[in-house]
Write a structure and sequence with these properties.
By secondary structure, this protein is mainly β. The chain has no helices and 11 strands.
Length: 127
């Protein structure tokens, strides 16, 4: 089964940028639609962005549209989340997730649709 490891989190000021990476091992990334989710203290996990197996389709939560960009490099077995214009409310642990779906060109936007999860990376936006 695939293992996922996030990196790239950290402390950033309001209006700054970060790029998160999710490296996959134990599987071929192109077999998996991927997603990013986040969870802030005391809140439920929420959807951030999703991308189809070959990157042809993407989806974003409304509050991230225009600020975040999900992409993938299947040759490097890595998915990225570019986050710009960061706000204090973006502070959370960010998780990447993979779904077993070896044939469709779909993306998936709810956490229950995903089969594998990374351990998360902390993003803190300071004002």
């Amino acid at each position: 089964q695939v293992q996922l490891e996030e990196s790239g989190g950290g402390l950033v000021q309001v209006g700054g940028s970060l790029r998160l990476s999710c490296a996959a091992s134990g599987g071929t990334l192109s077999s998996y639609p991927m997603g990013w989710f986040r969870q802030a203290p005391g809140k439920e996990r929420e959807f951030v962005a999703a991308i189809s197996r070959h990157g042809g389709s993407t989806d974003y939560a409304d509050s991230m549209k225009g600020r975040f960009t999900i992409s993938r490099d299947n040759a490097k077995n890595t998915v990225y989340l570019q986050m710009n214009s960061l706000k204090p409310e973006d502070t959370a642990v960010y998780y990447c997730a993979a779904r077993r779906d070896y044939s469709s060109g779909r993306y998936y936007s709810t956490d229950v649709q995903y089969d594998y999860w990374g351990q998360g990376t902390q993003v803190t936006v300071s004002s």
